[in-house]
Design brief:
single chain, 2 domains, 3-stranded parallel sheet, 475 residues, mainly alpha, elongated
């Protein structure tokens, strides 16, 4: 093991420790992270329907979804199921890091940890984020594949492993394709980090290409992902030029000066170190990929008013491009103590930004509990609150409120359980549906809960929804 590998091995310990803190933080803030739109929706559906709830063909998410499913099958108390589900995300990412470490790909361990910290604040609270799960599969794929290549494992063993891990990576979320292909080219052109012959590299690249094509074909049948790709697949030269001045890019630049300022130290340091080391092609590729990512984000999200937790998760993959040369070429050549202090400082600074973002999510939980408490005092089991512009904005997103409130009520062991939602009081059809005692409002539909898992959810089907304003509830 040369000096570079020894340094990276020491840095991987710090990175794994940071990932452990990431995981433990998920337990401390499990309500803020789990009882937030998609996470609450998915875990509610898994427990209610007693099977996995894979969306948009994102198959790699089975790794976390099987935890609440198993908990429900074992008849665990719902509080423990929710805790275990929240824990499963950080646990999966840490295990992925440990797998990569065991494969002796120490630089990838560091790079992986930086992905989960560098451009993260609000997005940390968006627990059920398939992009983050896809990136974990990506690093497992690279760690295992490179390890097998270095051990000269026969191709007939390598190929099936690579196919499965590449499939899980690409299919878990489409945006992972960008860091996935970036790293593939970055390590290939670096040569000293690449254990495969030209022939094997072409075979593996062909497999990636076929998986990507199949993903594109599948996406064409899915309105959600296809809508996000429309601007990218129907662009012009003018769109490319205007992309760099789009609302999302301008907002990112503004935030980079106040929140993501570390990138202005990390990215140039990495490029300069790679250039000095004679690795000009990886340096140029990193710069080209960086500009390409900015352009794609500008094209896909031309507007600048996207909620921070959402757009931040989309920008997060850029950290792989920003940090690659920094990890591979800068950190290993400086004094080991300085590199350890520098990396530790990066994780500590970014942890501070994550903790600082908690207030909005903590407020949501406190508000939901406050509403449920006042419902209990007034004898209300199902409540429809009239939309309030101020509350709606402060709530960040409110479509998941029915699931979030039902889960909290179930944890509190309310009898009967309570739920509430926000409605437009001018929607006459919805108001009529809510007057039917058997109906439950579940964000996207008004349904009869006769087929729910009543071991965990016992909704009140004997009373209609009470419709009132926030002020009337607290009067």
């Amino acid at each position: 093991m040369d000096r570079s590998d020894k340094t990276l091995k020491q840095l991987s310990f710090i990175s794994l420790a940071a990932m452990a803190v990431w995981m433990l933080g998920g337990i401390v803030f499990y309500k803020e992270r789990l009882l937030f739109v998609d996470s609450a929706y998915i875990v509610f559906k898994i427990i209610k329907d007693k099977h996995l709830f894979i969306q948009e063909h994102r198959y790699g998410s089975f790794i976390t979804q099987m935890i609440p499913l198993l908990g429900a099958q074992l008849h665990l108390p719902i509080r423990y199921i929710l805790l275990a589900y929240t824990f499963s995300f950080g646990c999966f990412y840490l295990i992925a890091g440990l797998i990569v470490y065991k494969c002796r790909q120490y630089a990838l361990v560091v790079l992986m940890a930086l992905y989960y910290f560098l451009l993260v604040s609000d997005s940390w609270f968006w627990t059920n984020n398939e992009i983050q799960q896809a990136v974990a599969w990506m690093f497992i794929c690279y760690g295992v594949t490179l390890y097998m290549g270095e051990r000269h494992v026969k191709l007939y063993w390598l190929l099936p492993v690579f196919v499965v891990l590449s499939f899980l990576t690409v299919y878990t979320h489409f945006i992972v394709l960008i860091p996935f292909l970036f790293l593939w080219v970055f390590m290939w052109v670096s040569k000293d980090r690449w254990p495969f012959s030209k022939g094997v590299s072409i075979v593996l690249s062909t497999i990636i290409g076929l998986i990507v094509v199949s993903k594109f074909l599948v996406v064409k049948t899915s309105s959600y992902d296809d809508n996000h790709l429309y601007n990218v697949t129907h662009l012009s030269i003018k769109d490319v030029i205007l992309a760099f001045n789009s609302g999302s890019v301008r907002k990112f630049v503004m935030r980079s000066f106040s929140e993501y300022w570390l990138i202005y130290l990390i990215f140039p340091a990495g490029l300069l170190a790679a250039w000095k080391a004679g690795r000009k092609v990886p340096a140029i590729w990193s710069l080209v990929a960086f500009m390409g990512y900015i352009c794609l984000m500008g094209i896909t999200y031309s507007q600048g008013d996207i909620l921070k937790f959402h757009i931040e998760s989309e920008w997060q993959s850029l950290s792989v491009i920003i940090c690659a040369a920094f990890v591979f070429y800068f950190l290993p050549v400086i004094d080991i103590r300085r590199s350890m202090l520098l990396l530790s400082a990066i994780f500590l600074i970014r942890t501070g930004y994550i903790v600082a973002a908690r207030d909005s999510f903590t407020w949501r939980i406190a508000f939901t509990n406050e509403v449920l408490l006042n419902m209990k005092k007034k004898g209300i089991t199902k409540l429809a609150l009239a939309n309030d512009g101020y509350l709606k904005k402060k709530y960040i997103l409110d479509w998941g409120v029915p699931y979030e409130s039902m889960l909290i009520s179930a944890m509190q062991q309310d009898e009967p359980q309570r739920t509430f939602t926000f409605i437009d009081t001018n929607d006459i059809v919805l108001k009529d549906q809510l007057r039917c005692s058997k109906n439950m409002y579940a964000s996207f539909d008004v349904i009869d809960p006769q087929h729910w898992n009543y071991e965990y959810y016992r909704p009140d089907t004997s009373h209609p929804y009470t419709i009132m304003t926030y002020q009337e509830l607290f009067r």
